[in-house]
Amino acid sequence: MSKRSIKIVVTGASGQLGQCLKSISTNWDYSITFLDKQNLDITSVKQVYDVLTTIQPDIIINTAAYTHVDLAEEESDRAYQINAEAVNTVTRFCKENETKLIHISTDYVFDGEGLEPYTEERETNPKTVYGASKLAGENSILNSNLAAFWIIRTSWLYSNYGKNFYKTILDLADKNTILSVVNDQWGSPTRAEELADFILRYLPQLSSETRGIYHFSNSGSCTWFDFAKAILNKHNSHTEITAIKSSEFPTKARRPSYSVLDNSKITQVFKYKFKNWLDALG
Ligand SMILES: NC(=O)c1ccc[n+]([C@@H]2O[C@H](COP(=O)([O-])OP(=O)(O)OC[C@H]3O[C@@H](n4cnc5c(N)ncnc54)[C@H](OP(=O)(O)O)[C@@H]3O)[C@@H](O)[C@H]2O)c1
């Protein structure tokens, strides 16, 4: 299949990753339709079938998700509706129409209690409603026996788009002279543009041979405090920052203390070279 002939649909197009994909899409010769929630609500079975049948995409990139980690503890039904049931609907469409699927998932499918980076084979054990709903979405794809799919688990996604830690720190630094950030939760920040670029660059290789789960995060690891400090440095901010413990910053959903993804499978399969998280920050 030549790149020009690949027809792609991106769901959740007004979200962070959706906007990143859109911002770099002109670099590629694909025919991409970006659909936000108004144009395609993935929880509507009728809309999924009507809209996608009209477009007949070769590949669907599903970035649509319920991503409110704390609120999900109260809105469990809604989280499952979007992250699990709707993913099942999209997967069913893909199966019936021989459409390939790229689905985005999360480090929250693990318990976050590990001591070494999580490989794709590691046992899942989500500790939050958000993580459990995302895992249910993954499982509906895995159980469907879809011919060609990638489930890409990522972590600590940030960019200039949408709501994310990077933007929150800059906002807070604008309004405060001192910030307190947790220093006992480890993970790997992931530049959303880099993930978007990986997806568009490598999607011609999406096939039954490469199907499966992949971990994608910038390499190396840090705490939220390290990440915040690096963000402030990059922007020459004079805002002071202090390290605090998770117990001093209670949240509704329990946060993983160690959430580093091992991304060596992508390196092996696609010969992809990840940027270190600090270099990716720029
Ligand atoms: N952000 C992170 O740190 C992070 C980390 C790991 C994994 N991920 C995963 O990465 C993916 C992209 O995340 P993101 O940061 O781009 O999230 P995001 O900014 O919250 O984008 C998700 C988009 O999906 C839309 N959406 C919600 N319900 C929908 C529905 N029923 N139909 C269609 N669209 C719907 C949202 O619209 P509304 O906002 O209007 O509801 C939003 O525009 C998600 O699968 C997420 O689980 C994210």
Automatic annotation (TrEMBL):
UniProt cross-references to NCBIfam families, sorted A to Z: rmlD
Pfam families: RmlD_sub_bind
Taxonomic superkingdom: Bacteria
First-level EC class: oxidoreductase
Physiological role: Catalyzes the reduction of dTDP-6-deoxy-L-lyxo-4-hexulose to yield dTDP-L-rhamnose.
Gene Ontology CC terms, in alphabetical order: cytosol
Name by which UniProt lists this protein: dTDP-4-dehydrorhamnose reductase
Molecular-function GO term, any one: dTDP-4-dehydrorhamnose reductase activity
Pathway: Carbohydrate biosynthesis; dTDP-L-rhamnose biosynthesis
Top-level taxonomy: Bacteria, Pseudomonadati, Bacteroidota, Flavobacteriia, Flavobacteriales
RmlD-like substrate binding domain span: 7-281
Residues passing through the membrane, by range: none
Reaction it catalyzes: dTDP-beta-L-rhamnose + NADP(+) = dTDP-4-dehydro-beta-L-rhamnose + NADPH + H(+)
GO biological process, one term: dTDP-rhamnose biosynthetic process
Keywords: NADP, Oxidoreductase
